[in-house]
Specification:
Helix 1 packs antiparallel against helix 4. The protein contains four helices and two strands, in the order ααββαα. Strand 1 and strand 2 form a beta hairpin. It is about 50% helix and about 5% strand.
């Protein structure tokens, strides 16, 4: 008879580390790819983005970010980027989704 003993904790630790590494790489790329779509007036909104390390959550941390994102308060100009406007994540995702999946797979 053969007996196979697996160290579940070691495997789980390796998988979790790889998932976290992939998420960090993906977060950084999403921020980069979304930047041209983020409305810009003073740069405060663009600079306020906070990735929650490895959780797949990006927060634009200004009091007006939500209104800008949903287009209920768009007070900016397009001199920095003609692509800027509301729903910047969806716009970036439309263009870059395949690349994001590749980054996640290869991290």
């Amino acid at each position: 008879t053969s007996r196979l003993v697996m160290n579940d904790n070691k495997i789980r630790t390796k998988i979790n580390a790889r998932v976290k590494r992939a998420q960090l790489a993906l977060d950084a790329q999403i921020i980069t790819d979304s930047d041209p779509f983020v409305p810009y007036r003073t740069g405060r909104l663009l600079k306020s983005v906070l990735p929650f390390a490895g959780k797949g959550e990006l927060v634009y941390n200004t009091e007006y970010a939500k209104a800008m994102y949903y287009g209920t308060h768009l007070n900016f100009n397009k001199t920095r980027s003609a692509l800027a406007g509301s729903h910047w994540f969806e716009k970036a995702k439309t263009l870059h989704k395949r690349h994001w999946l590749t980054i996640a797979r290869n991290a």
